[in-house]
């Protein structure tokens, strides 16, 4: 099972980016898919998740970021608008082969599969 994240880059504050995460191999339909990010010197941080019960966001990105999945449920997207310098991080996509309760979404150890990360830099 592989998760391939792409779409990162260098943008100015206020700009938008869309990240993609393509899954391949094994069972490509996951109960839950999500995004985490890790800034230099900081711990990996939950960003957003998409599961059957709906979507979930961290408070820091809610109303600016939108998570979505394609109809086949094998590709995950993260539309990021109104980007801020504090959004600068390596963004990782993650997937779970089982359902996750809401309280466990923010815990990296709850997730089964990880992509390699894509760097997003927000700077003027």
What does this protein structure show overall?
The protein has 124 residues and is mainly β. It is built from no helices and eleven strands. The protein has strands at 2-6, 9-11, 17-24, 32-38, 45-51, 54-57, 65-69, 75-80, 89-96, 113-114, 118-122. The strands form two sheets. Strands 2, 4, 5, 6, 9, 10 and 11 form a seven-stranded mixed sheet that branches. The radius of gyration is 13 Å and the shape is globular. The termini are far apart. The model has no long low-confidence stretch (mean pLDDT 92).
Computed CA radius of gyration, to the nearest angstrom: 13 Å
Look at the structure and give the mean pLDDT. Answer: 92
N-to-C span: 37 Å
| Poorly predicted segments | none
Main sheet summary: 7 strands, mixed
Describe the global form.
Answer: globular
Q: Class by helix and strand content? A: mainly beta
Strand fraction: over 45%
Write a compact overview of the structure shown.
This protein is an all-beta fold and 124 residues long. The protein is built from no helices and eleven strands.
What topology emerges from the helices and strands here?
Layout: E1 2-6, E2 9-11, E3 17-24, E4 32-38, E5 45-51, E6 54-57, E7 65-69, E8 75-80, E9 89-96, E10 113-114, E11 118-122
Supply database-style keywords:
0% helix, mainly beta, seven-stranded mixed beta sheet, 124 residues, 11 strands, four-stranded antiparallel beta sheet
């Amino acid at each position: 099972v592989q998760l391939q994240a792409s779409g990162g880059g260098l943008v100015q504050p206020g700009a938008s980016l869309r990240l993609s995460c393509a899954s391949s191999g094994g069972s490509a339909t996951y109960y839950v898919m999500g995004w985490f990010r890790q800034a230099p010197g900081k711990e990996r941080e939950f960003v957003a998740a998409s599961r059957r019960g709906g979507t979930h966001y961290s408070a820091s990105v809610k109303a600016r970021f939108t998570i979505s999945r394609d109809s086949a449920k094998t590709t995950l997207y993260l539309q990021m608008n109104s980007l801020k310098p504090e959004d600068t991080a390596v963004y990782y996509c993650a997937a779970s082969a089982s359902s996750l309760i809401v309280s466990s979404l923010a815990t990296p150890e709850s997730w089964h599969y990880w992509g390699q990360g894509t760097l997003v830099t927000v700077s003027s």
